[in-house]
Amino acid sequence: MNYQTKITGQSIVLPKKWIGKKVFIRETDDTIIVKKMQEPSLKNLRPGLLKLGKMISKKDIQDAVVWARNKSK
C-alpha cells in the first residue's frame, strides 16, 4: 500500500501498527525506504536452510571439523 504522509520536524508519521517494530531504513539523495523487519522464526528460515543443506557435502563438513580442531590448538 502506498500513501502520503507528512514530515514534522525530523519525524515521519508511520502506521500505528508499526509502533515498537524494528525497521530497516535506506536513504538516497531523494528517496527514503522504510521496511518493517520480519521477526525471525524457524518457519521463515527453514526453506533457506534446506537449500543450504543441499549445497554442503560430507567432505565440506569433514574439512570444517579438521579446520576447527586445528584452530583450537
Overview of this structure, please?
- It is built from 2 helices and 4 strands, in the order ββββαα.
- It has one domain.
- The N and C termini lie far apart (56 Å).
- Strands 1-2 form a two-stranded antiparallel ribbon. The protein has a two-stranded antiparallel ribbon with strand order 3-4.
- With 73 residues, it is an alpha+beta fold.
Shape: elongated
Low-confidence sequence ranges: none
Biggest sheet features: 2 strands, antiparallel
Largest sheet, order of strands side by side? Answer: 1-2
Number of E-type strands: 4
Measured as a percent range, the helix fraction is 25-40%
Order of helices and strands: EEEEHH
Task: Give the integer mean of the pLDDT values.
Answer: 87
Q: How many domains in all?
A: 1
**In angstroms, what separates the terminal alpha carbons?**
56 Å
